[in-house]
Amino acid sequence: MGKTVYGIPTTPRVWLDAITYAVVLAVAVTGGSFAVGIAAGGGLPLGNVVTFVVGWLLVGYGTIRLWPSNPDELTQGGVITPDQQSRLQGLVRQLPPVRWYQPAPRDQLRVAAKIFWAGVVTLAFSYIIETALNVG
Predict the structure, then answer these.
(1) What is the distance, to the nearest Å, from the Cα of residue 3 to the centroid of all Cα atoms in its chain?
(2) Comparing C-alpha atoms, which of 62, 60, 67, 49 is closest to residue 125?
(3) I need a surface site. Which of 78, 98, 99, 120 has the fewest CB within 10 A?
(4) Is the entire prediction scored with pTM above 0.90?
(5) Cis geometry, peptide bond prior to residue 97 (ω within 30 degrees of 0)
(6) b/e per residue, 52-89, with b = 16+ CB within 10 A?
(7) Residues 112, 113, 117: CA angle, nearest 5 degrees
(8) Structure confidence at residue 11 (pLDDT)
């Protein structure tokens, strides 16, 4: 059995934090993309294209940030201290259910991994919007 904090396994806490971060960022990107699409006069189809492109940019950026620059980075953990948190991470930590089940900073996924997963969720949103809502 893995580590537990207050009787709750650590691994679900880590994934809950990462999934919440990814969904919040993907919703913000999707909303912003559709606002840009509508403001530019392209409507929902342009918003969906912008969502798709930004999703791939997030995946690429997360991948580049995850790539180790030297072999020592493979053995070192990416501990996040409270002063290293972004505003988005602070917002996500205030949202339920993460606010009730926060993982310890040493147990969190790196921000680059969360950005990568946000890109994957954004691409999923783009796909769902294109197929289910017939936009595009």
Answers:
(1) 24
(2) 49
(3) 99
(4) no
(5) yes
(6) bebbeebbeebeeeeeeeeeeeeeeeeebeeeebeebb
(7) 115
(8) 78
